[in-house]
Structures are given as C-alpha cells and as structure tokens.
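Why GST N-terminal domain-containing protein? Reviewers of the renewal asked for a concrete example.
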Amino acid sequence: MASQDIILYDLPSKGRCHCWSPNAWKTRLALNYKGLAYKTEFTEYPDIAPKLEALGLPPDPVDHDYTIPALKLGDEYFMDSMVIAKELEKRYPTPSLNLDSPKIKRTRGLLGPALESLRPIWMPKVPDSLLRERSVEYFYRTRAERVGMPLEEYAEKKGGEQRWMEALMAIDDLAAFVSATEGPFVDGNDVSYADFIIVGAMFFIKRIDEKDFERLLENAKPVLQQLEACAQWFKQDD
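Here is what the prediction returned.
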C-alpha cells in the first residue's frame, strides 16, 4: 500500500511540527514497526470533529466525541488507537503487535495511576509546551470543563508533592513489571503493543517537560532501557 493510501490524522505541535500525543504515538509506533509507508495530516483540536465527521467516521459510542488518532487505510477510515491497531494487525499480521497478550491490560493498569496522579501537573503545561495558537483556547476551555475549574487553579489545588509521590510509586511498579523478563521489552526480547503504550506515554511527558520526565524515571531504569530499545520506531515522527 502506497503512502498516499495510509494517512494518519495527528495533533500538530508548535515549533517543528511532530507527534506528541501518547494515543497518536501508539498508532505511529505500530505503523513504523510494521514498516508501512504513510503520510501525516496534522489537525488542530477545533478541526478534529468537523474533519472526521466529514470523512464519514461516527463519533465515539461512549463519550460521543471525535478523537485523535484516526487513520485512513485505502478507502476506509478508523478512529481510536486500539481499533486502529486491530485493523493494522488484521491487514498486516507480520511483524505482530501481539494484541492478544494479557500484558496489555496489565500495562494499562500500571501506567494509568502514574499518568492520572500527575495529571494536575502535566495537563496545565500542555498549551504552553506543545500547542499552536489555534488549539490553545480550545484546550483551556474543554479541559477546564473536564476538571471543573480553570487549569491554573487545577494545578494549584490538585498538584504538588503528594501527586508526585503517588506517581513515583506507580512508576516503581511499572518498572518492576517491565523488568520481570530478560530483555528490554515487556515480553523480553520481543517488542509488542504493550511496549508502545508505555513508551508513547513517557515520550509525551518528555515533550511537555524534560525535568518532569527525568524526575519520573530517575529510578526507573527498566523503562529508560525500554525507551532506548524502541528508539528506532520513533524516527518517523511527522
């Protein structure tokens, strides 16, 4: 399939426009790992819903929203990183993402608490660190609605050292999980979608704030080794 037949709809960034969203990275890493040629169509936050609706995609059945990533495969369109991963695996089964592994569920269960604990720390930084002007107002408004207060207030009231302590404990558990087998990946020497879930999230934190990334992984050597082992699939980021 030629690159024009696969289009990844991703979120743009300020400066050199390249991938930062952890969900988009799951799809991009899968595409890169499978060696598929594709092009990226960067889409600002306010343009996501009208663009994907115009392509004929239905909104998410749970929250009735449109989200990134979305993917064009030939004449068909797909939305949601796991939906996309399953479709890629069906069409291009080798190399495998190992989507049937129970470790994917375990990965999410361990990673989720770390990201959730740090949400009041990383979320308010996203506009200044990552977003272009067109998406800034949208992000501030929609995330304030989501957390029930302006993001500056959210950071002040809900952030702090207690959140960091919770996140670091969660990362310790995640690092132990990653290191449970020989080799840098969750499945030892074989990379899988579970690895892409983790490293995409870690790269997201790094893009927002390098110091936060360093603090989070200061004592999580297995996760750093996992990131290093996945470096080859981060090269195509735009």
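The CA atoms of residues 44 and 135 lie 6 Å apart. This is the kind of structural detail the renewal will allow us to pursue systematically.
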